[in-house]
Each structure stands twice: as C-alpha cells, then as structure tokens.
Request: fold
Amino acid sequence: MKLSLTLRHVFVLVVCAFALLPIVFVVSAAINPLGTLASTELLPKGASLGNFGDLFASDTYPFARWFLNSVFIALASSFASLLLSMLAAYAFSRMRFAGRRTGLLALLLIQMFPQFLAIVTIFIIFTKVTEMYPAFGFNTVWGLLLLYLGGALGVNTWLMKGFLDTVPKELDEAATVDGASHAQIFWRVIMPLVTPILAVTALLAFIGTMSEFIMANVFLRDPESKTLAVGMYGMIAGDQRNANFGMFAAATLLTAVPTVGVFLWLQKYIVSGLTAGAVKG
Amino acid sequence: MSSPPAVDVREARGAHAPPKPRREITTAFLVSRIAVLAVAAALLLYALPPLVAARSWPAVVILCAATAAIAYLYLTRRFVPAKYLIPGTVFLIAFQVFPVLYTVSTAFTNFGDGHRGDKRAAITAIESGSVRQAPGSPEYSLTAALKGEALVFLLVDPATKQVQAGDAAGLTPVPGAQVGVTGKVLRAPGYTVLTAPQAAARGQDVTALSVPTPGGLIKANGLSRAVEGRATLVYDARCDCVQGEGDRWAADEGQGYFVNAKGQHLAQGWQVNVGLSNFARVVTDPTISRYFAGVFGWNVVFALASVGTTFALGMAVALALHHPRMRGTKAYRIALILPYAMPSFAMLLVWRDMFNRDFGLINQLFGVDVDWMGQPSTARFAVVLVNLWLGFPYMFLVTTGALQAIPRELTEAASIDGATPWNGFRRVTLPLLLVALTPLLISSFAFNFNNFNAIALTSEGGPFPAESPQVGATDLLITYTFRLAFGTGGAQFGFAAAISVFIFAIVAIISAVTFRRTRRQEEVYA
Reply:
C-alpha cells in the first residue's frame, strides 16, 4: 500500500512537470528584462517587472480595460449558460416527452457544426442588429454575450444530463410524494446535489470564454471594447512578435489569474462528494 | 429550423400518476406569473419600436407571436418540459441554428468576392466604376453634408460660384449658402455641414454616392473635389447586357457574371444560385480531390489521438489522486489545472516557439537539433503533444467530477467481493465513468476534428512537400479548405460553406454511429 502511494506521487509529479514546463518558460519570458523572444531561456538570467510596467503604461494596449471586459464577459456568460443548460438537462434527464431523443440528438448534431464556420452569416446578422439595437451590436459586451449563449445548450447540456442520470431518481420521487412541485424539486433537491458538477462546468465555461478568440475578434474591433484574447493577439501580430514577447508573456500570466481565482473559489465544491450517502440501502 | 419539441403531456402526467386536486394559488405562484408578464412586456417594449420603424413586418409578427407564446407557456401549468427547454432553445435557434442554416443555404450560391450583392448592385458598381472624367467638364469643390440622416454633396461650381446640393436623386440649387475662401461651404440652410474628420469617417459613403446629371454622373474624387464624368460602360435592359468600350457583355444568370463573346467576364458579378456545383468542385477539382483522402485520414488520426491521449492521461491522474490517503491533492490539482487556466491561443503560440529549431526550448533542453516543424512525422508528433498539453487538464477535471459522483460503496463492495483493483476499475469505475463522459468524448472528438487553432497557430498546416505547396502534413480538413477558400483566390464564401457542409456531414455520421452505442449503454446503466 505504501509503495503504491509512492508510485501515485511519482506519476503525478511527472505529469505536473509536463504541465508546468511551458508555464515556467512564460514566467521566465515575463520577467526577462530584455523582453524579447530571442533572449528568453527556461531559467531567466535576470529578473525585473519591467514588462508588467510596460503593459500597464502602454497607450496602444489598454490592458486593464481588456482585463475587465474579459472577466465580466466570462463570468456573466458562464453563469447564464450554466443556468440555461442546467434547466434543459433537468428536462432531458427527468422527464419523458415526445421529441426528447430527437432533441438530444439535434443538440449533439448542431454542436458539431462549429459556430465559427458560420462567422460570415453571424457577421451579416449582427450588422442588422447593430443598426436596430446598438446596445446589442458590434463592440458591445452584451452582443457578444448573446452570441456565446447561443452555444450554451450544446456540450454543457449533455455533460450535465450525464451527471443528472447518475443522481438517483428515488430522490425526486420522494420529494414528489411529499408534495413538491417540479420547480421545487429542481431548486431544492437537484441543484444542491449537483453543485460539484456545476462548479466544474462553471469553471470550464469560464476558461472557454476567457480564451475564445475567433468570434470576439470579429465582434470587437474598437480597442476599448476588446477582450484579452483579441487584444493580446494584436500585441504580437506581425513584426511585433519578437519585440513584444516579454509584454505578451506578462499579459498571458495576468490572464491566468482570474481563472486560477475562480478555480480556488470553486475548489470546495469540486472536492465534496456528490451522492455518496444520499441513498442508503 | 426546428420548432420547439412537441410536448407529450399525457406521458409526463402519467409519470406523476393519479389526477391531482387543483393546486391552490400560492404567493410564489402569483409572484412568478407577474414576473413572467413583466419580462414579456419589457421585451416587447424594447424590441418592437425599431422593427416598426424599419417596417419589417414579418419580424414584428414573429416577435409578437414568440413573446405571446412564451408568456402563455409560463402562465399555464401545462407543458412542463417545455418550460425548462425554452430559455436555452431561444438562444440556440437565434445564434446557432439560424446562422448554420443560413450558411448551408450559402453553400448553394456563389457568394464571395465579386459576387456579394444582387444584380442591381453589380450594375451600379460596373457603371459607376467605369466613370471617366468627361473632357472639359468642370471640377467642383466638394463639401460633404447631411440632410436629415442622408449624405449629400454640396458642390460649388468653379466658374459661377453657384452652390448646388447633389444626392442620389440629382442636383438641386441651394440658395443662401456661405462659401469660404478655400471653396468649401461653411453654412447652408437646411443642411448640416460635416467637418473634415466627420467626412473622413464616412469615407465609404462619400465614395459610393454618385449624383446623376443630364450628361453623366458626379463622383467624389477624394473628400474635397468632385468631377463630372460619363460612365463608359452602360447597362441596357433591352438586351440584358452591358455595352461600352467597344465591347458587349451579356448577362449570364448561371454564373452571375456579364460575359463577352470571348468568354471573359467583368469583375463585378452578382450572387446566383449555383446548385450543387460547389459540392461537385470538391470531387472533380483535381487540386482539391487528390489530397482529400490523405487529409481526411490524418484528420481522423489527429482527432482520435487527441481524444485518446488527453482522456487517458487526464483519467490516469484523476485516478491517481482519487485515493482516501493521498496527500497534497490540492497542490497537485492546482499544478495540473494551470495549463487549462492559461489562455490557449497564447500558449499555442508559445509552444510553436518552444519547438523552434534554432532557439526553441525543446532543442535547448534535450540538447538535440531537430527541425520539429520541418518534417512530417515530428510535426505531427509535436501538434499532438501540444494538444495533449492543452487538453488533458480538461479531461482531468471532468473525470475528477465524475469520479466523485460514483458512490465509493460500489468500489468498496467490489473489493470486498474479492475484485483486484484493476478489475474493480475495469468493471465498476470505468463503465460508470463512461456513462457520464461518453457524450463528452464525442464532443471532444468533434471539437478536435475541427480544431482550427491547434493547427493554424502552431504548424500552420506545414511542413509542405516541395511538389504540392497546397497541402501540408499536419493540415486538417478545416485548415486545408480554409486556405483553399480564403487563400490566394480571394474570399469564396459559397465554396467554403460547401466544404463546411462536407465536414459537418462527416462528423455527423461518425457521431451518429457513436450515439447509437451511447444509447445502448444508457439503456444498460440508467
């Protein structure tokens, strides 16, 4: 038993080394005083916070503004999309209705068609929306949010339906016998039980939105409205690549901060067990 | 477009068995109903006026019907599943299904560069593009202005100093306008004169506006000059052709071009329905069909390898940490999740630099001199490795979640019954994991099948063999076709849409087959 535990540690440590290698490289680039790609090594020769200073002092790249935009969009869209897909997953997992299987299959198929293949038509649609409802048009976070919510039902519904299927149905039957309505079962019985899954899915949605690039790149062209992904891509585009690499690495690290923060915040839910002990015998 | 699924109330009721006595009206019931009505009313109040102003009556009807249907759905006690499905479905239809269907319909057209608008727009573009300054015609001094919301030209005749306003309808005199020393109009009653930056911001509108005159057209030449010219190419409705410059181009509705006797066409065409020719091109065009099978094969290998390696590594680490006496799991978890927390597009670019032959970290670290992205086998290895690094934390996270959902009693029972740890994993843990995760694995496969970023930001599809610079060793269908469709030949949206439909069909077939297996699994375990 002792040996097997040691083996577990060794294995996990090796994987951790693999996971951390590029990140160490980025850290090294971020604190590299020269701030160029060519001068960056795994272990930095010197250390300075110059790249971070440049990042916030820069007029060309309003980094702080991008940061706020990204965090807001990522938080709002992950919460909203989570709720939407949780509602749908509840119906698919617990109710039997005509078109259930068709609906599930349709969701799977629709999601196969990557949204960015439709980018030309999305652009055309939002050109119209911008004319009529400027508050939801190009260069607004609300329009981008709507667009992201369009993809909410795809993968998350399936993921959560999978988890709901493993929650014993006896629990809601018991609640029904006690006189609970479907809404009460959803909010009082199911939601507390699946908090760990919600935490995992919220984290995934948050991360996905933080790194989403193609749609945001088309949608946000005004420098002030950009998200981190769009703004930072512009930072090392073309011949800026070598010169701005230190700043880019610094920005990459700062972008990771909110994600790590959300992970630590949700950690306690992820750790707790799901249904162990809920049904005995 | 799929209408909301028809709801079988009988079955839903049947599950809840005996006919319930009519429920009393509680406060919560009342409050929620009032909230529903308020939201529906607010939606209508916000969305309706612009649609009415734009006179798009079909949209008005759809909006009213949709709002009424949603309000009814949440006011009644019936259609319980629909109450849960509608919120997400509305977004799904508006921002995913509709754009996708729109794209599919584009696949049957020649929409793209040279075929963007309708025939009238093409004629206008051809005619105004062929305007040449008529010899001896005056050069007006131009001031851009607004009448209401519409752009107009205020034109000062160099000889008479007379001010005229020109818009798409023609010229009208402007009495009482003030002209500055430079010839610019300073003020004109009834018009809002634009400043130079304002006019520059509307540069496209300024270029597009042409003012008809008895002898030809007045077009802007820059932002402060306008010249009168004559269109050298003129459309004639009687022969449905464009004439001028000593030639004649007849409209070809099949191609969406004006074509002359030698088979040459004018640059501007219009969007026409081309039927299946975009699809036929994939099969018949030798520069496309020759490599299709090879790219498809590597595409499948790449997607399978990505899903397989990420799931295997993610699950292995999750299992290693899922042990009651494991210490330091919190620290490990943070280290393992870090790759996922890093912005993926940025890390893809970083990985590309790490695989660089001359100053890349990998060569430096292992003391080798490998041109990673220069040879097919190492480039393929590299992109799969990069994708493994990006993807395994996700698999680790979801497996951890799913492992926690599996009651520990089950594995305990198995070990009490004498199962070895391996058997306990293979016969209890893994099947239960797969119930929860198979849909996710299918999604992951579909995602990696079209993982544009993973290739485009690292190897860019390369390395390219010397004899066929069109197709690289790590090209996926999507990067390959995007290069063909959007590359040197200009934007060909119709063709790109057709390729997208091909990719969609391939992934859909693979997924449908896998889905049938999931269904069997669900019936066994659920």
